[in-house]
Amino acid sequence: MSTVYDSSRPDSRAAGLAAAAGAVRSGRLVVLPTDTVYGIGCDAFDASAVRSLLEAKGRGPDMPVPVLVGSWSTIDGLVLTVPRQARQLIEAFWPGGLSIVLPHAPSLAWDLGQTRGTVMLRMPLHPVAIELLREIGPMAVSSANRTGQAPPATVEDARAQLGDSVPVYLDGGPSGENIASTIVDLTGDEPVVLRAGVVSVAEVSEVLGVEVQVAG
Predict the structure, then answer these.
(1) Hey, is 6 helix, strand or coil?
(2) CB neighbours (10 Å) of residue 8?
(3) Which of 28, 123, 126, 177 shows the smallest number of beta carbons within 10 Å?
(4) What stretch of H or E contains 12?
(5) Parallel/antiparallel/unpaired status of strands 168-171 and 30-32
(6) How far is CA 145 from the centre of its chain?
(7) Interacting residues of 183 by C-beta distance below 8 A, sequence separation 6+
(8) What is the pTM of this model?
(9) What is the Cα–Cα distance from 8 to 171, expressed in whole angstroms?
(10) What is the tens place of the pLDDT at every residue in 126-181?
């Protein structure tokens, strides 16, 4: 049985965040609001929970799960190195709708899918998400939809798709923009936009001072 917590009311918000934190710590799933679309998330370091997340979405490990963080500094412990271009993008667009792909630290014991040694990181611009992330730490979070269906802009949309596979739903109202984040890959010699989204390619190029290419 799942429970929806209204984050617009202080008492329900506190209860919801406590329930979500407890669920994540016990290896279960939660649905949380972000500034783009609603996400389904779990402890990034719990491989069993990540598998449950993929099963809830109806997809396999060939599409790795991104990781959300609650602060700029969290990234330092998750990646091999933070290059200058990553710092520039973080300072310009975090928290916000930009995801960055970097080689992850080889010492990390996580299994996010077939990542080929990389991790996609983002800091969302949503107070409920930030509060949960700062309480829990990095979370594996994907859009809260079944594969092939539209990413949800409301908690009702998410619950209609995921049902009781998720015990805790945090209702933060309609998402700000029902548009996915922009993904910038910094694992190669030159930055590449893998997906254009909330942040435009022109904005990314302006911050980096180079004309950024868009993947095929």
Answers:
(1) strand
(2) 10
(3) 177
(4) helix 10-25
(5) parallel
(6) 13
(7) 99, 100, 101, 120, 193, 194, 195, 197
(8) 0.94
(9) 8
(10) 999 999 999 999 999 999 999 999 999 999 999 999 999 999 999 999 987 678 89
The CA distance from 160 to 183, in Å, is 27
Task: Report the CATH number at residue 118.
Answer: 3.90.870.10
Q: How many domains does the chain have?
A: 1
DSSP H stretches of helix in 101-192:
127-136, 155-162
Domain, as residue range, for 78: 3-214
Kindly state the tokens that stand for 195: 């997906």
Extract the tokens encoding 64.
């790795």
Within 13 Å, how many C-alpha atoms sit on residue 65's CB side?
36
Q: What is the pLDDT of residues 203-214, one digit of tens each?
A: 999 999 999 999
Contact, 112 vs 50, CB < 8 A?
Answer: yes
Q: Which residues contact 182 (CB under 8 A, 6 or more apart)?
A: 97, 98, 99, 193, 195, 196, 197, 198, 199, 200, 201, 204
The encoded tokens of residue 129 equal: 């998400």
